[in-house]
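Hello,

Our lab assistant flagged a job as stuck in the queue for most of the afternoon. It eventually completed. Since we weren't sure the result was trustworthy after the delay, we are filing this so someone can double-check. Below is the sequence as submitted and the structure that was eventually returned. Let us know if re-running is recommended.
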Amino acid sequence: MKFDKRNWILAGAAIVLLFILAAVLASLSGERRSDEMLRRPSTFFTDPSGARALLLVMRKLLPAAEQWRKPLTQLPLPDKPHAASTLIVASPLLPLSKAEAPHLDR
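-- returned structure --
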């Protein structure tokens, strides 16, 4: 019976030590950084902006949906094959340039 009580005490002490160690590591881990702090929704990150989720849903509904990583002036025009029929620009950081606006109008 003496060993059984000692095992319970040892297990309890180990659990308490584990919680203390977890609390110390959590306090040392620093501040959580997310893309939301930068105020730039991105389809690369799963932050609260929801931009990644939007892209994944669009890929389910529209298999041809893709991320565009080039300047807007390089978008194919509608008369060319594989041209985009819909363009979604969510929260742009900069306004359209003088070259991008006429290209999008075409």
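-- support follow-up --
The delay was a queue issue, not a problem with the job. The result is valid. DSSP finds three helices and no strands in the chain. Helices lie at 2-28, 51-61, 100-105.
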